[in-house]
Structures are given as structure tokens and as C-alpha cells.
Design a protein that fits this description.
The complex is a heterodimer of chains A (617) and B (158). By secondary structure, chain A is an alpha/beta fold. In chain A, the strands form six sheets. Chain A has a five-stranded mixed β-sheet. A four-stranded mixed β-sheet of chain A has the order 2-1-3-4, covered by helices on one side. Chain A has a four-stranded parallel β-sheet with strand order 9-8-7-10, with helices on both faces. Chain B folds into two domains: 56 residues, no CATH class; 83 residues, Glutaredoxin. A four-stranded mixed β-sheet of chain B has the order 2-1-3-4, covered by helices on one side. In chain B, helix 1 packs antiparallel against helix 2. The N and C termini of chain B lie far apart (36 Å). The mean pLDDT of chain B is 89. Classes of the chains: A alpha/beta (617), B alpha+beta (158). At the A-B interface, helix 2, strand 11, strand 15 and helix 18 of A face helix 2, helix 4, helix 5, helix 6 and strand 4 of B.
Chain lengths: 617, 158
């Protein structure tokens, strides 16, 4: 690889890459995100590579193994350019056909196209798919264009151009002013103004400073940071170098969850390439500025997403948070001024420097600028990563992009903000999505998980789930969080077991208040949110559990009883076959019966029954 | 116990105290747990107190002081997997394998682990078995995966 020593070197390199890319007639991109991996995308890619090699087409056809395209549920995804064809659920056996028909003859293969679930219309390109139509993929969009482990792909789309601009056209204070003017707020959850944080860190006394990229994406149900670091690691690096230059830091760290092996691997590869190209190390791009980045792996502790705990973890210690009276921008890693931003925040920086703060702040709402990536998951038709302008309504995300409910069930809530957030009921779906309005209804933006829940989801169970999650993840340093969450969990357990009483809810609310008021760090302070928001909007469900000893969503096992309707059962035997405890009896073609003393209430029978004869009470 | 690999791992990270978590990850990958002798070795080479090292080794969930089974089964119970039926699969797996989350079968064949999110939420419930992701899990699929491993081990073609 060549070494880039100046801005003109970089421009020349880009020209060369572009002219080399022009030689390809066709570009086949196979999505290589973790979701597509679960569906076997690697085999699909290998099959393409084999087919292209066999026909001696290596010079004509470029095969790319890209990062996450967002529509994970439809994986593996394959696109063919310049025709712009979008194929979904591609299997190994489809590859020869794509090569011979689509690539050689330009024919579109109908059976691999996305078919609209309502209109049954088939979409040939990404643009025609409703899931992509309402999105504004500024940050995530490049994932589909580049191979994350090829720095040349990134430079080819203008990568590191913003860095050159920052180095040679702007002073560090001008960069900070630009970020401040853009209105960018931290994408990790709390929404602190990024430019202000940078300024504070720059002004903090000390010669040695650090920047950190937080990829300890612990919120269950959120995976945009993984997909960004996995799919476009150079954008994150470019953002970090610009930030480090503005702040005056010469060393950076990317803290990645150990559960994200592909993100670690791709980030590692990107760092090595950037070093070789002279974009990291001494005298970056001939600017006289030195900067290098290393990766630090987490060990599976949710609390390490909190800045002070994360810093302790990088230092090789137990990930316990400390009091934040002195901010990390003044005293962070090894006691030095440290600026910590989330992956998505860093990935926004090159865009802002490249296109200007005015352009960036024209997107979004008054106080929340730009776009935000959400992971739209749970009980919704189209699941995956969506990037939308701030201020879009929940309804638009869930119904237009997400395609509405699965299996005709009614959607009743959406959970945002992970364990620090809350459930927003369907009656508030006209709410614009931005930092402040989500906080206003008792939830929060968080890192961007959006878990859709329908009438088959029990809100008491969800509240219990989050409390137990946090109880387990509490580091144990401060008492309110350690003990308070345990007691809250016990109360919720008793309610879901049918043992709740009149006092359960008031005690729960009192405890929640104490935990929120007196915990040391953000984990404990926000821990009661899921319970309080569930009580605020779904109190009747709690009351049903307590007074009627009934779980309306049929989730809480101790309150359930399974039976088979005599009139509906056709005696197919499917339920008997799957029952793990042999609790179903009945002859073929005759009515079946559940023996309640043997039934483990696993629900398998209900899942397989084709005529809906299994009833839950 | 042969501690050469431990030395190699510590050498690789140049005895840096800050690399402790990465070092422990590599030891865990090599031995399927953190053996006591290995921890003593790391403590002496990095010159850290064994107490502190024990603290770190027990704080982070990825580490285990007891040996793990040959096949690691990780079930995701993140929110998205939870609302799509993850707990049902967990109940079934504990019954099928006869172990609780965090446990290992007596024949050291399987370990069952539960994690809070694998970040593959769009295709939940998700299971991660021997380095491979499986999406849209249900009871039948989960059972089939276990059966397949069992068959492979006994030499029967699946």
C-alpha cells in the first residue's frame, strides 16, 4: 500500500482508485453484516467468487463483501450495479443463475425480488422498497458501497477528504465551532452537545489527552454501533482523527464489546491499513499532527458503557463507575483529560466537516439535528436498521418503514432507550422522535433501540425483564442500585406469579423513586424508567395480574392454563408430536386433550396448531 | 499444567497491565476457562495483586473460573429476543441439557450461556453455537441443532 504524505497525494490516490474502478462493468455486493452471516451470506459470497473466477471474469466483475445494509430480516442481500437490482434471501443455489442471467443477460430474477406485503408488488431496486423509502441514510448508506476491509473503497467515495479539509483549511478551534454550530448531540443516549464536550476537553489543562470511541453497545435490542464499526470502520477512524486534532489528543481507543467479533476484526483491519497509508501514526497526512488508535475489548459488562466504568475497564480494572463531580473531559483515562463519544457520533463528524454545519443543521428539529439510526425490531413486519431524520413520527417509523404489525396482531407500544428508557403507548405514536420529546413522555432516545410490542407482549413481564437485567448488571458499588433493584425484582416476580397484593404497586413506586434519586451512576439513576413508564401507561395490566390473577397477554406462565378446543381440533397430531413433556393425548383424527398435571406451559402446541385450537386462559 | 501458552500471550501484549482484559480473553479462548495456575502466572508477570486480578476475572461475565464444555451454546435474551419468545427456548434448553444457564453438562460436552444482546436483534430469537449465529429460533430448531452436534460426535452422518 502507498503512503499518503500530503493532501495532493490523497487526491491523486482517489483519482487512481476511481479510474481503476471504472474498469469494472458490473459490481456485485453481498451483504456481510452479522445478520446476513446467520443466513449464510459467506457461502453466497464464496459461490460468487468461485463462479466469477471460473469464467475468467475477475477483471470485468467486482465482488464486494459489504457491511450491514440494514434490512437484516431479508438477508442475505445481494445488489447488482449499475443495474441497481436488489435481491433478497439469496441462497447459494441462486448464485449461478444470477451470474448467467442477471449479469450476463441483464435479466431480473423475479423470485429473488422483494415483494410488498400489502400490495404484492415486486421491487427491483432499493428505492422502490417502502422500508428504504422514508429513510435518510447519511451515515449508514455508505455501508452498501464499500468493502469495510478495503481502505481504497473508502477513499474512492471521498473518504479522508474531510480530514484533509480539517487539517489544511481549518484551525482546531474552527473545527470545534463548526461542530458546535452543527448542533450535533451525542448519539450514545444522553444527547450532550458534542462540540461543547470537545471544547471543554480542549480547554482542560494538560499536555496529554485522549479520545475514546464507545462501542460498548450494551442496550439490548440496539445494534447500530456494531453495524457501523463493522461496515464502515474508516468513517469512525476519520471522525476520531478530526476530533483528536481539534482537542489536541495524540492517542485514541476504541472500546468494543467482546460479543462483537466481526466489529473487532474489521476495526483492527482498518487501523492497520490506516497506519500503513500514513493516516494514523506520526505526521498524519503530512500535517505535523501525530495520532494513533488501539482497540480495547470489553468483558461482557453492561455498566462499562458508562464513561467512567469504561475508562476503568480500559485501564485493566474492574468496571466500576465513579462519581462524576469531576468530569472525564478534565480527568479521565489515567487521570488525563479524555473525550469520549459514541460510534455513531464519531461517524457523523466527517459528514459535518465535509458538507458544513449549515447543511447538517438543516436536517432534523430545532434542538435535535441530523439523522439517527434506530434498530427497529420486535413485533413488526420489517425489522432492521433504519436511519431517519430527527423529528419523524413514531408512526411513520413503525408503520411506513416497519410495515406495521406481524400476524395481524395489534401493536400496543414501542420500547426505546433500552433499560434506561421506557415503553411508549400506541396512543402517543404521533410523537416526533427527538431527544427532548422522548424524555418528555418518560422514555429516552438511548442508543437507538426501538422494540415494537404487540398485544402478545405482557408489559409487567417487560418491566420485570428490565429490572432483572439491571439487577444482574449492577456493578454492586452503591447500595440503592444493588439492593433496590433486587427488591423491585422480587415485587415484580410476585406480581407475575399471582402473589401480588394491594401494596405491591405503591411499594414498587416508592422504591423506584429512591433508586432513581440516590444511585451513583446513570445505570441506577435511570433504572426505574422501564417500570415507571409501564405503570404510567399500562397500569391496568398490573392490576389484572394482582386482582384477577390474570395475564392478558398470556405470557406469565404461572397464571396460564392451556387447553384444546374440542370443536376446533382436527386431530392432526402436530401438537402431540412437539410436546416436550408428553402432556397431550388423543388418537389421530380425533380430538386431543392436554393433561394439565404434565403440561410445562411451554406453548409449543399453540405455535404449531394450524387451526388455532389451542387456547390459553 | 503447561504455562507456555500463557507466557506467550503475556509476551504478545508486552506485559502491559492495561492489556489485562485482552490477555484474559486469550487465556479463556485457549483453555475454555481461566485456570488458577494461569491467573497466578499472569499476576506475577504483570506485577498485579492476585486479589485485584481475581476481582477482574470474576467481575466480567465473559470469564469463567470453571471449565466450559466443548460446545458453547449462547442464547440471546436481549429485549427483541425476549419479546419474540427467547425465554421459552431457554426453558426448553435447560430441560434438554439438564443444566442451568452458566452450567456445563457432566460429560463436559455442552455449556449453556445466556447473554443480554448479541446485536442481531432483527432476526431474534438468536442462538450462537460454536461460533455460528442461528436466527429466528424456535423449540424445534433449537432441538435439531443439539441433535446434530450429538450425531456428529457419535459418528452418525446428519
Amino acid at each position: 500500500m502507498r503512503r499518503i504524505k500530503s493532501r495532493s497525494d490523497l487526491e491523486r490516490w482517489k483519482e487512481e482508485i476511481l479510474s481503476k474502478q471504472k474498469e469494472y462493468e458490473v459490481v456485485v455486493s453481498v451483504c456481510g453484516g452479522t445478520g446476513c452471516h446467520a443466513y449464510g451470506c459467506k457461502k453466497v459470497r464464496d459461490q460468487f467468487a468461485k463462479g466469477i473466477r471460473k469464467n475468467g471474469n475477475g477483471r470485468r466483475i467486482r465482488l464486494k463483501f459489504t457491511g450491514c445494509r440494514g434490512f437484516c430480516e431479508r438477508g442475505p442481500i445481494v445488489t447488482v450495479q449499475p443495474m441497481g437490482i436488489f435481491y433478497q434471501k439469496v441462497r447459494e443455489k441462486d448464485v449461478p443463475l444470477i451470474l448467467s442471467e442477471t449479469i450476463e443477460k441483464g435479466k431480473v430474477l423475479e423470485h429473488l425480488l422483494y415483494q410488498d406485503l400489502v400490495t404484492n408488488q415486486k421491487a427491483t431496486s432499493e428505492k422502490e422498497i417502502p422500508f428504504y423509502q422514508a429513510q435518510h441514510r447519511l451515515v449508514l448508506g455508505n455501508n452498501g458501497l464499500i468493502e469495510p476491509t478495503e481502505i481504497e473503497d473508502y477513499v474512492g467515495i471521498g473518504g479522508y477528504g474531510a480530514l484533509a479539509k480539517a487539517f489544511f483549511e481549518m484551525r482546531p478551534d474552527q473545527i470545534i465551532d463548526e461542530i458546535k454550530a452543527s448542533g450535533l448531540r451525542g448519539r450514545g443516549g444522553a444527547g450532550f452537545p458534542t462540540g461543547k464536550k470537545w471544547e471543554d476537553c480542549r480547554n482542560a489543562p494538560g499536555d496529554v489527552k485522549y479520545v475514546i470511541c464507545n462501542c460498548d453497545e450494551g442496550d439490548p435490542g440496539a445494534y447500530m454501533d456494531r453495524s457501523l464499526l463493522e461496515g464502515n470502520p474508516h468513517a469512525v477512524l476519520e471522525g476520531m482523527i478530526i476530533g483528536a486534532f481539534a482537542i489536541g489528543a495524540n492517542r485514541g481507543f476504541i472500546y468494543v464489546r467482546h460479543e462483537y467479533p466481526l466489529a473487532c476484526k474489521n476495526a483492527e483491519a482498518a487501523i492497520t491499513q490506516a497506519r500503513r497509508a500514513g493516516l494514523l501514526g506520526k505526521n498524519v497526512l503530512g500535517s505535523g499532527f501525530d495520532f494513533d488508535v488501539e482497540i480495547s475489548k470489553g468483558g461482557g459488562a453492561f455498566v462499562c458503557g458508562e464513561s467512567t466504568a469504561l475508562i476503568a475497564s480500559i485501564e485493566g480494572r474492574v468496571g466500576e463507575p465513579r462519581s462524576k463531580q469531576i468530569h472525564t473531559v478534565t480527568q479521565g483515562l489515567w487521570g488525563k483529560p479524555t473525550n469520549l463519544n459514541n460510534v455513531e457520533t464519531w461517524a457523523n463528524i466527517p459528514l459535518i466537516i465535509d458538507r458544513g454545519s449549515e447543511w447538517f443543521s438543516s436536517i432534523g428539529t430545532e434542538k435535535s439535528k441530523g439523522t439517527k439510526i434506530f434498530s427497529l425490531v420486535g413485533k413488526v413486519k420489517n425489522t432492521g436498521l433504519v436511519e431517519v431524520p430527527m423529528g419523524i413520527t413514531l408512526k411513520k417509523i413503525i408503520f411506513d418503514i416497519g410495515g406495521g404489525p406481524q400476524n395481524g396482531k395489534k401493536i400496543k407500544a414501542v420500547q426505546t432507550g433500552g433499560p434506561s428508557g421506557g415503553c411508549i403507548p400506541a396512543s402517543l405514536f404521533d410523537l416526533p422522535v427527538d431527544f427532548d420529546s422522548l424524555t418528555g413522555v418518560g422514555s429516552m432516545m438511548g442508543s437507538g433501540g426501538m422494540i415494537v410490542m404487540d398485544e402478545g407482549t405482557c408489559m409487567v413481564d417487560v418491566a420485570k425483564y428490565f429490572v432483572h437485567f439491571l439487577e444482574e448488571e449492577s456493578c454492586g458499588k452503591c447500595l440503592p442500585c444493588r439492593e433496590g433493584l433486587k427488591r423491585m425484582g422480587e415485587i415484580l416476580d410476585s406480581i407475575t406469579e399471582g402473589k401480588g397484593n394491594e401494596e405491591s404497586l405503591s411499594l414498587l413506586e416508592e422504591l423506584a423513586e429512591v433508586v432513581a434519586d440516590t444511585s451513583l451512576c446513570g445505570l441506577g439513576k435511570t433504572a426505574p424508567n422501564p417500570v415507571l413508564s409501564a405503570l404510567r401507561y399500562f397500569r391496568s395490566e398490573f392490576e389484572d395480574h394482582i386482582h384477577q390473577k390474570r395475564c392478558p397477554a398470556a405470557v406469565c406462565t404461572p397464571l396460564m392454563q392451556y387447553s384444546i378446543s374440542e370443536t376446533d381440533c382436527i386431530g392432526c397430531g402436530a401438537c402431540k408430536k412437539v410436546c416436550p413433556t408428553e402432556a397431550i393425548e388423543g388418537e389421530r383424527k380425533q380430538g386431543h386433550r392436554i393433561l394439565s398435571e404434565l403440561c410445562s406451559k411451554c406453548g409449543s402446541c399453540k405455535d404449531v396448531c394450524k387451526v388455532n385450537a389451542v387456547m390459553v386462559q | 499444567m503447561d504455562l507456555k501458552s500463557v507466557d506467550k500471550i503475556v509476551d504478545k501484549y508486552e506485559e502491559k497491565k492495561t492489556a489485562l482484559i485482552s490477555i484474559l480473553h486469550e487465556i479463556q479462548d485457549r483453555y475454555h476457562h481461566l485456570p488458577e495456575e494461569a491467573l497466578r502466572k499472569v499476576a506475577s508477570r504483570l506485577q498485579i495483586d492476585l486479589n485485584d486480578l481475581y476481582g477482574v476475572a470474576t467481575f466480567y461475565k465473559s470469564f469463567s473460573l470453571t471449565p466450559k464444555g466443548e460446545h458453547a451454546i449462547t442464547l440471546c435474551l436481549g429485549t427483541a429476543c425476549h419479546v419474540r419468545g427467547g425465554p421459552k427456548i431457554l426453558r426448553e434448553m435447560t430441560k434438554l441439557l439438564g443444566i442451568q444457564p452458566g452450567g456445563t453438562t457432566k460429560d463436559s460436552k455442552f455449556s449453556l450461556n445466556v447473554v443480554n444482546c448479541l446485536g442481531v436483534c432483527a432476526i431474534g430469537p438468536v442462538m450462537f453455537v460454536d461460533g455460528k449465529f442461528y436466527g429466528e429460533m424456535n423449540l424445534v430448531k433449537a432441538k435439531r441443532i443439539i441433535e446434530k452436534i450429538n450425531k456428529k460426535r457419535s459418528g452418525v452422518k446428519s
